[in-house]
Design a protein that fits this description.
- By secondary structure, this protein is α+β, with helices and mostly antiparallel strands.
- It folds into three domains: about 260 residues, FAD/NAD(P)-binding domain (3-Layer(bba) Sandwich), CATH 3.50.50; about 160 residues, no CATH class; about 120 residues, no CATH class.
- About 35% of the residues lie in helices and about 15% in strands.
- The protein contains 19 helices and 22 strands.
- The strands form six sheets. The protein has a seven-stranded mixed sheet.
- Strand 21 and strand 22 form a beta hairpin.
- The longest helix has about 35 residues.
- It is globular and about 75 Å long.
- This is FAD/NAD(P)-binding domain-containing protein.
Length: about 650
């Protein structure tokens, strides 16, 4: 499959729909994980002009992820999408009366010269608590009507009836309508075929289908180096799920650590615990660099629901976690051991403590001898994990994609930017994606052409930030395993300088966690409106007496309060190609990114003339500020455009 153009053109849409027959825009969401369900809730609850449907590949949802400790940006993203999402999170993660309590992730050196020293406190925020992925998703799914989600829908093929304007990429397979779907084929240009032989048709397609995304493969091309997940450093996560009471009473885990989200660092692997099920259960793990088998199956890196290694399906344990260990739920299944005289690696069969000896692990064997120089609390957790590693998996991420959207097809969440779990921000980045998409689609989009511009604006504000988060997660892994990282142009072993290490963690956490999600939505909104205006003016200049297309309704609310009657989309003026318009707008996104000043995302005034916007939009202003100025000059433009009543 050929890769698509790096600058997404507009969707093909030449049918002018009468005002009285305007139908809702049909949005297909592939994947019913955290990102997909959050986006659906944001659209279903707040938009009457969008017909949204989720297609999830599993027949019955059984998430296999571990615990989540959502940071401030994730909490604010949920609030931006829909307050019901945030309420469902609080109901499952926080006991009544705890919403105002603060929690932070404590990072502690477990080995080395400075063992026992706390070197980081990440993500301190009110309302931040840990939650199991299954519980979070269950709360999201409760907000999605059953008629808006279909299970057992494994995507095997995606194609478009009409080639998007402005691209030379040929139309894929010709459409052979099935019984009863010929009308939908004519109305909706995007087509999805599932493994069960059924088909769906849509105006807009959003892929939230995880690290092994079919939509990513469609957008980038199956042979693109960035399409498939990678585990460059061979990370393996040895993990167990255990009742908190058992962890404390049987294994001697410090009750204080069991109530927080500690990360204990050392050269043979870092150790962490996440309380779940309102503190009744613990997800404990040891992550080791270079320990993954070459044929290891990838498990959850942030929001994917891929099955973990070594566990037979169907996987039921997260649905039945009460007072049982993982091994008791899975039965007698156990992993193979390596010979006693083999060369030892962390997963080899080394000697274990009396507490862990005698109990067969249901997963890969963790060598506890390697952790004798770790602090006692870390050793206790290691022995506890080694006794039952049935929830283990190899983790992976994605190399950077060169686009997130093309025409009316886009990807979000892990499908767009799967990250290693070490920065604890994968799910948060997925929620940020959903927040931007929900904001643009529900407030501004009525046509496929508007949808293509909204998806381009989404890509413009989300690509750099989300891909930086992927890089940060990789660096976290290096730092956690006592490897050197680049700091101020020099390779530094941060574990040998606790003060510098603390500063480094603070800086990285500020980028990922202390982020203004609402302003990100505003930036995307401003970019969308300026692209919309620029194309409208270009059309006006090429069509002579034709008036510009009407801007979408300007609203600062999350809910569209009234439907505005408008005509269908106009066609491109003769002699004007969509490709030339998008190429003239290539620097538009760069200008928006330059307008972001510093970590707080504040806009700064730009006084220089933007020749690229000038050539496209024929603007009479010397300064073209992306977010603030459109509110000032928009009224004059709308007065002129209301006479036409056309809709872009």
């Amino acid at each position: 499959m050929d890769a698509l153009a790096s600058q997404p053109p507009m969707c093909s849409s030449t049918i002018r729909e009468p005002e009285s027959t305007r139908r809702p825009l049909k949005v297909a969401i592939i994947g019913g994980g955290i990102c997909g369900t959050a986006l659906a809730v944001g659209l279903i609850h707040s938009s009457r002009h969008i017909d949204c449907h989720i297609y999830e590949k599993v027949s019955e949802y059984r998430d296999v992820g571990a615990g989540l400790s959502l940071h401030k940006n994730a909490i604010n993203a949920m609030k931006q999408i829909d307050m019901e999402l945030f309420k469902s999170y609080l109901e499952r993660a926080v006991e009544i009366g705890q919403e105002d309590q603060e929690m932070a992730t404590e990072v502690i050196l477990a080995a080395g010269k400075f063992r026992g020293i706390k070197v980081g406190e990440l993500g301190r925020a009110k309302g931040r608590k840990s939650i199991s992925r299954a519980d979070l998703l269950a709360g999201f799914l409760e907000q999605v009507p059953k008629d808006n989600i279909s299970f057992g829908k494994q995507v095997v093929k995606i194609w478009e009836t009409h080639s998007p304007l402005g691209t030379e990429r040929p139309t894929t397979d010709s459409v052979a309508p099935k019984n009863g779907d010929s009308a939908e084929v004519a109305e909706h240009p995007i087509h999805i075929e599932f493994a069960d032989g059924s088909r769906a048709h849509a105006d807009v397609l959003i892929g939230c289908d995880g690290i092994h995304s079919t939509v990513r493969s469609y957008l980038l091309g199956e042979d693109n180096n960035a399409t498939k997940p990678k585990n460059h450093d061979g990370w393996q996560v040895y993990r167990t799920l255990i009742p908190t009471r058992e962890a404390v009473e049987k294994w001697g885990v410090d009750p204080k650590l069991a109530q927080t989200v500690p990360i204990l660092l050392g050269p043979h692997g870092h150790i962490n615990m996440i309380p779940m099920k309102k503190g009744e259960m613990l997800s404990a793990g040891v992550a080791i660099r270079g320990a993954a088998r070459s044929d290891a199956a990838f498990g959850p890196s942030s929001s994917t629901a891929s099955p973990p290694q070594y566990i037979p399906l169907p996987l039921l344990w997260l649905d039945h976690l009460k007072n049982a260990s993982v091994s008791s739920l899975l039965g007698p299944h156990s992993g193979s051991s390596t010979p006693e005289n083999s060369s030892r690696t962390p997963q080899d069969n080394g000697s274990q403590s009396p507490k862990s000896r005698g109990k067969r692990s249901a997963g890969p064997v963790l060598n506890t001898d390697l952790y004798k120089d770790y602090i006692p609390e870390a050793q206790k957790i290691v022995h506890m994990v080694a006794a039952d590693t049935s929830a283990s998996w190899a983790v992976a991420d994605h190399d950077h994609a060169r686009l997130y959207a093309h025409g009316c097809v886009a990807m979000a969440g892990d499908a767009a930017h799967a990250a290693l779990p070490f920065a604890g921000n994968g799910a948060a980045q997925a929620l940020e994606d959903a927040a931007v998409l929900a904001h643009l689609l529900r407030n501004y989009v009525r046509t496929r052409e508007q949808a293509s511009m909204a998806l381009w604006a989404y890509q413009s504000v989300r690509m750099q930030r989300s891909q930086t988060a992927v890089e940060i997660a990789r660096e976290y892994g290096q730092v956690y395993s006592f490897n050197k990282v680049l700091v101020d142009g020099k390779m530094v072993a941060l574990h040998e300088n606790p003060t510098l290490m603390m500063q480094w963690f603070k800086k990285q956490a500020a980028f990922t966690n202390e982020f203004d999600v609402a302003k990100q939505n505003t930036n995307a909104e401003g970019l969308y409106l300026n692209i919309h205006r620029a194309i409208s003016k270009r059309r006006n200049s090429t069509n002579g007496d034709a008036t510009p297309a009407q801007l979408p309704p300007k609203t600062k609310t999350e809910e569209v309060k009234s439907e505005e009657a408008s005509n269908g989309p106009t066609t491109m003026g003769e002699g004007t190609s969509a490709r030339s318009i998008w190429e003239s707008l290539k620097k538009l996104r760069g200008r928006a990114e330059e307008a972001l000043d510093g970590d707080d995302g504040e806009l700064v005034e730009r006084d220089e003339t933007d020749d690229d916007v000038e050539s496209v939009a024929s603007t009479e202003k010397d300064s073209y500020d992306f977010v603030n100025e459109y509110m000032d000059d928009g009224d004059d433009e709308l007065e002129d455009e209301e006479e036409d009543g056309s809709d872009l």
